[in-house]
Amino acid sequence: MDEIKLIEVKEDILSDNDEAARKLRDKLRRDRCFAVNLMSSPGAGKTSLLLQTIAALKDEFKIGVIEADIDSMVDAEKIRETGVTAVQLRTGGFCHLDAAMVKTGLEGLGSEFFDLVFIENVGNLVCPAEFDTGAIKNAMILSVPEGDDKPLKYPLMFTRADVLLVNKIDMMELSDFDPAALKQRVENLNPGMPTFEISAKTGRGMASWTDWIRREIKDFA
Amino acid sequence: MHELPVTESILNIILKHAEKNRVSRVVSVTLHIGELSDLENQWVQHYFDYLSKDTPAAGAVLKIERIPITLKCRNCQHTIKIRKEEMGTLSCPECGTEGDFSLVSGREYYIKEMEAM
Question: For residue A109, is it within any domain?
């Protein structure tokens, strides 16, 4: 019987994806294309937020959208009605986007033609947190009805985000959502992360988010 | 939920090392997974068994070592190990500063070593 050998591997499990994401980010920088990865639970309001954001910014920037909602054409249709270019990725039940899928989407759009690209990730707070998409920034949307305890249940997602949008604040009075408790929980996981309270429905707070995008694009370009 | 693509990555990496080291059978693989990850041990093994059929890694046991969440106080540099559920309300046991930590460990996704023959 052969002897058992101990082999040192010392590799990150997702090193292939991390490397692909790094290359994609380099390309986006060369193309001066500011890509934002939008992550949230299903129903947190990613598509409505996107529609409002596009309405506010489409005269200033050339905007493209990559949609990854599981096997649905509905979201991409809604986005196209605003006049911006959208590509739909068929994720076929996949629970997250990875850098290879985003690369396909960006090639479909032609990232060199856009100043700003939104990547609508699959609605899920677990898997998208593990996979770097290659986006320049990660935005997370948490809606009020989901509760202020989400950082305790999905901490990894909160450590990955560069900006947090608390959506549906028009529903605050109907719930026991505690913004101070949320702030403290987020602060422990991701100190100093910009957090904006918004309502994509009423438009409240939306300017703080769109101003953040304007500033980021200015710093990026 | 994302155990399948993760397991595929693990398998690809260890098959590469198996070939490089000219071994014909992988007995075990030691992984370092941070406590912040939601990866489920039993599913990773289950998918691994499925994907590794007819490869030198068939039958290998995955040993998953969980790496604790470690935070460092940004005020006094004191480090603490905590559980995932404790991340909500925290102040530094050393200097009392509230909620001003940086994450030192807990996000690991790493293959440490493997046993093979």
Answer: yes
Question: Does B91 lie at the interface with A, CB-CB under 8 angstroms?
Answer: no
- Decide if A2 is inside a domain: no
Crossing angle, helix A206-220 and helix A46-57, to 10 degrees? 70
Which residue in A33, A24, A161, A40 sits closest to A85, CA to CA?
A: A33
Taking the CA of residue B46 and the nearest CA in chain A, the distance in Å comes to 17
Residue with tokens 């909620």: B99
Q: Which residues contact A108 (CB under 8 A, 6 or more apart)?
A: A66, A87
Domains of chain B (ranges; CATH) run 3-72+78-116 (3.30.2320.80)
- Neighbouring C-beta atoms of residue B51, cutoff 10 Å: 16
A210 lies in some domain: yes
The pLDDT of residue A1 is above 70: no
- Please give the average per-residue pLDDT across A207-211, as a whole number: 98
pTM: 0.88
Closest Cα of chain A to B9: distance in Å? 6
Look at chain A and report how many structural domains it folds into. 1
What ipTM was predicted for this assembly?
0.86
Please report whether residue A6 resides in a domain.
Answer: no
Mutate: best of B29, B48, B87, B105, partner A, most A CBs <10 A: B87
CB contact B36 to A (< 8 Å): yes
CATH for A139: 3.40.50.300
Our CA-based measurement puts residue B22 at a distance from the nearest CA of chain A, in whole angstroms, of 11
Q: Which of B13, B24, B38 sits opposite A9 (nearest CB)?
A: B13
